[in-house]
Amino acid sequence: MKKVNVFLVLLSFSVSTVFYAQNKTEKKVAVVSFSTDKTVDVTDLGLNGVKMVADKILDLKNDPNFNLAPILEKYHAAFFESYAKKFPFALLPEAEVINNQAYKDFQPKLGEKENETAFSLLNYPGYKEIYEGMFGKSNEEGIATIFKEHADGVLMTRIHFSLIKGFGIGGTATVKIQVFARIALYDKTGKKVWVINESEQSKKTGVMVGGIPVLEPKKILPMCESALEELMKDLDKRIEKIVKKSEKL
Question: Per mean pLDDT, which range of 40-54, 104-118, 146-160 is the poorest?
Answer without folding.
Answer: 104-118
